Structure formats: C-alpha cells, structure tokens
C-alpha cells in the first residue's frame, strides 16, 4: 500500500461529507461570532443613543425649568417691593384704614406694569376679602376665601410666601396662577395678603417662538397634572389652547408623589400616543413641572440605520462565505446584501468610511448635503479637512484613545463646511475589526445639530436675559452679585450695587401706549450701556427698574463712594437727553439708590435691601436724584419698628396715663383742663408724645388708644363731680381724625359716657381743621349728634390749617383755640398779633368762646385780655402733670 496521499477528487465520499460538514461548521461559527459581535455593538449603541437622548432631554428640561424659575423671579421681585411698601408704617396704615381703596388701587396699578407675566396685583384682607385690585374686573369686597392661595395661608400659620398651581377664576372665566405673600405687623399678626395674579399664557407664547427639533416635545404642567402649555400642540389647538387640560399618566404621578427633583422615563405620550423618552424636572420652589420628550422613533433613527448597515455587512460577509461554499448561492446572497448595504448607507445621517489609516473611502449623499463636499473631493483625504480649529490636540487625543480602547466614541464636535461656515454636529466614530482582530476600517456617522443648539441658546437667553432689552435679567444679576461678593472680601476690593428706577414711566405708557413704553426701555438700556464699561453688569429687573453692578472699585471706601457717585451721575445725565418716541420728543429722569459691599458678614439679601432702601429714599427726595444707603437710616428704621412693636403692647400692659394742663380765666381761676396722653415705658421711661403719637396715627393704633383716653377722662369727670370745688370743671380731649371718622364713633362716645356716668356737658372734644377738608357734611353730622347729647366741641390749632369761614359758620362749634405759634410771637411780630386779634374778633362775631394756648408771660396775657380774650392755657399757669398736681380753687 502506497504511502502517497490520494488527491481530493479521489477521496472517499464519506471524506467529502466530513470536510463539507467541517467547512459549514466553521462557516456557521464565524457567522455566529460575527452576529454576536454585531449584536454587542448594536446593543451598546442602542444604550448609548438612549443615554445621549436622556442627557440631552435632561439638559433641555433643566434649561426650561431655569427659564420658568427666572420668569417667576420677576413676580417675586415685584411682590417683595410691594410687601416692603405695605409693611412699612405708612403702608400698614394705608392697608388698615378703611376708605383708602382708591389710593390702594393707584399704588397697585403703579406696580402692575412691571412685567407681561403680571396680570393683576391685589391686596386681600385677613378676613379673605379683596381690598383693592389693579384690575377693575375684580371689585373690592370680592370673597377669595375659597381660592387655594388664601386657604394655603389659613392652613399654615408659618407660611410667608406661596405660588399656587393653576386655579379657575369664576370672575374672569379663565385659569390663573397666584403668587401670594403674607402681610403682617411688627408683632407678627396676620394682616392679609399681597397677591400677584399671573398670566400663564406667557409660557405658551414663548414656546410658540421657540425652535423645536424633530420629534421633540416640551410641556409645562402644574403639580396637579394640569397642562399650562405644550409644544407641539395636539389636536387642532395652539400651545396655549391646552391650558388647564388634565393629564392622566401613572408614571408622572408617581414621580410627583416621590418628591424627587428630576427623573427620566420611557413611555407612550398620553396626549398624542407617540412613544418618547422623557426628562422630567421640577421647578425648584414652584408647583410646576417641565417635561421634555424625545420621540424614540427619531432618537433611534441613527441606530436603525446602523442596524441595517450591519445587517447589510453581515449579509455581505455571509454571502461571501457562502460563495466559497456555493458559488452560485453566494452570488445571489452577495447581490441582496449589497443592495441592503447600499440602502442603509443612504441615511439622513452623514456617513464616512475610511481605511485603517483614516483615508476616506466612501461618503454618502447626506455627507455632501451637510458639508458641501462632493465625494470626489474627499476620497483619499483625511477627515481632518473638516476641522474647525475650535478643538485642541488634547481633545482629539482623548477622542482617539476612546475609539482604540472602547471601540467607539460619540459627542459634540464643531466642524467646518466647504463654504467656511462652522457648525455643530453630533458625531459617532466606530472602529471595524476583521476576524483576526485587526483594525480594517473606521465608520463615522454625524448629524447637523445647528437647530438644536440654537434652540438651547434661545432657552438660555430666556432664562438669563431680558427679552425686551437683551440685558441680563434679575437671576443673572444675582448670580454675578453673589460671585462678586465672594471675591470682594479676599481681594479687599469694594463693589457697588445701583438700583435705578425711571420717574413717571407709567405716564409714557398711559399717554403714548405700551409699544412706545417698550421702545423707551430699549433706548434707555442702550443709553445706560454706553456709559458703563464692558466689565460692569447692567441688568433689567423688570418694568422700569434697572440694576448696575460694579466691582473691584478700590479699597478706600471714600474714594469708592466717589467713583460710584460719579457713575450714577453719568447714568442720570444719559437719561436726560430727549428721546424720540412715536413722533414725540420725550425727556425722562431717573432715581438711583447706591450701596457699597465688601464685608463678608453682609448677605446677598441685605445688599439688595440696602439698595432698595436707598432707592426708596431717592424717590422720596424727588425726581432725578440719587441716594446712598446710610446705616444710620437703617438703625432709625429698626428703632422705629421696635418702638411700634412696644406701642402695640402698651395698652394691654397699662403703660398709658393722663396728664392734665390747667385752663384758666382772666382772674386765673381754674375752669377746666386739657387731658394729655403720656406713655411710661418700662425701659425707655417717659416717651415723648411727639415720638409716639405720629406713629400711632400711621398704624391706626390711635383709634383704640383714643378710646382709652376718652374713658380715662370720663372717669376723672365722675371723680370730680362729687366735689363742689371741681364739679364744674371741663375736660378737653383731643380726638384724632381717624378716630372721629370711624364708623360708630358717636355710639362709642355715648356708650363711654353711659358706662362711666360722666356728665356730657363737661366733656369737650378738640378737633382739628384737617377733619373738614374732605367729607365735611359727614363730620358736621357726627358733631351735631353728639352736641344734641350735651357734648361740646373746640377747634384746635385754629389758623394753622385750612381755615375757611364757609365751613366755620356751619359747624356746631363751641370754642376756638388760638394756636401757640401765634401767641408766642404776638409781641414781636405784627402779623401774629394781627392774626390773634382777628381770631378773637371772629369768635365774638360767631358767638364762640376763645382760648389762647401757649401763654408763657404776663405781658402775653395782658395783651390778650386787652384784646378781648378771657381764657388761657400755658406754662404761665401750669405745666401738664398728674391729676394730683393740679391746684384747685386758685
């Protein structure tokens, strides 16, 4: 038997079958290995695409949430300013005093024009009744106790500020959002609410202008899962036609109930049925939710293209392998695979195939459409011909390290078109290896994301910049101020914050229209910007309010203040140049408040309050002026607040007492006394009436205090009635106009007389001329009813106010009091002497008693007696003192 091997054609049949089986097995194993490799690549790519979509949607949702939050910061600023006004002593008096609704409405209308989001401003009483509104559609007296924002404060006594979800208004027949802030007195008592009613249509209008990428959706909803707006709209409506539409989606509900700040999920839209990858982001501190969706079909479009490409490659390889086994069958499969591969290659993604040395072998039509390069221009060249120059060598080194180590890389890259235009693209690079593990090719796919980047930039602009002027908004200004404050202390450099408010801006809106008002704000922003350096921050806070942030001004506070003052004067000067609006020349002025900062103990809120306080002082000082924040001013306000808090407790702590000043006749016999209020503070001692009486007038404490004075004086009359030496004495009691105008004043006086048993004819009420400037007929009627019961009236400080003979002769008066300012000067000043003589003569002709107060010398009394005055009050006859100090029977 020969040891030579048989040729293949002479092998036994069983040998042929065994070789075929081995070849087929190897072929199938190779196909299986290739299939597993491709499956791994596809699964990894599928995961990466979803992760990229997830990250993109999350970043987009975060930006939109920032924009929503920044929008509400405008209402928060308006509300804070409003609350600061109403919690000042003057503002509290304005809120507490009935009949001031017109003044309240005027003040609210003045603040309501600050931003398009603000639909209305209102003041709600502690009982839940609308006191005043900037919108005439909401009448005073409207009961709001059933609305969610009032109920929230009822249920939580510690709640200071609250933004409501959507709620339905029966008055306007529309959905609204309310931003409410508690109003309280110095001792923390609930005084009511300041409420900003917001117009949610603003969100839809903004989204309508926003560029959207294919398959993207953006929705804003409240925490009750009611839509505020949604793009793209569903049905036949627009972005705001969905306002108030309830959404039923269990996963969203579960997310809201979880309390988490953000999440991502994949589900079918309950609105249009499309499957999307959603990123949900709560708006911090607000009852709103931002939902950004990426349609899975669009998100995975590139992945499906890669799938078909790899299927095509797989089929090509399978066909080639099969051709080795069966030439004819292999040829058919090759043709089919090539057709599939060609179809997959022509995708909406740009595609580049290079060899292992990164020389371009093939590009598709989308590559040409995006880059502008034809295939013939790039074959054999390196893809670096597209480089924009914006990325350094480190960036590309890390990119290729990822490709070598992980097999692929994807991310955002800036490239350059054939025209020279630089554009952003989302790029994926994958390495291709043969069966031996050798690198053979690179496959790159990319898409033009210019539109997406523009949309993201637009949202960023909305979140941090004012849409009308293009200036930084309040949020960006606060971010920069916070950074400047942190840097100022280590560097030792002072900075300055300037608040600028235009004077009488509302008149421009009312006379020329809101369009002219917008033009004015744009021109003002441009003017102010020309004065400042590029390193300074000019921001629009809302309405006609601007802020200027200056930093690194120096270490000497005196010189820094001078620099800030010089810049402020430049800003005021820039405003004074006439502006051309709607064919008219308009000149406008401004007021500026300035505060310096460097101390690391000063908080951001304190700096803002200081600038606001300085602006308030500038406004009070008149138009076209500036004021610096003065710590002494702040200390004075704090002292005033402490005094007011103590004053509120004084009545309950029985700290008030009455002193009495004698009133005498020409023979210096005691005929009566004037009851004068005194406050014995446990720590301060005796507080001057000039210090606490005006404060009591401002916050309406004068009403209960005046009631106490009246009762104490009546009890003194009763004590004197039993002694013949004092039974005929009269007690004069000063009555505040606020107390006099109170509903039921007559009934309270008569009830006090009845309760104490005091004789009405011995009680004299002293009123001032200011009482009769307005509502003269009502005042006369009140006096007439009391006079019918025996109570007498004296007109105090006659001649110092709005004296008018026309009302004097019609009032049921008994006595005129000559003011001490005339008495003091009557011997030295001919005008004062003439006025006193005229008052005495007038009293005689009107058959009224006359009494001179402030008599301090014998010569003054002698002059008064000589001219017909026979009743006196002053230090010559006795200073005010306790009842025990009165000398009876003199």
TrEMBL record:
Pfam families: dCache_1_like, EAL, GGDEF, PAS_9. InterPro entries: Biofilm_reg_signaling, EAL_dom, EAL_sf, GGDEF_dom, His-kinase-like_sensor, Nucleotide_cyclase, PAC, PAS. Residues 409-461 form the PAC domain. Keywords: Membrane, Transmembrane, Transmembrane helix. Residues 640-890 form the EAL domain. It comes from the Bacteria. SUPFAM superfamilies: EAL domain-like (SSF141868), Nucleotide cyclase (SSF55073), PYP-like sensor domain (PAS domain) (SSF55785). Residues 351-382 form the PAS domain. PROSITE patterns: EAL, GGDEF, PAC, PAS. The chain crosses the membrane at residues 24-43, 307-325. Coiled coil: none annotated. Residues 493-631 form the GGDEF domain. This is EAL domain-containing protein.
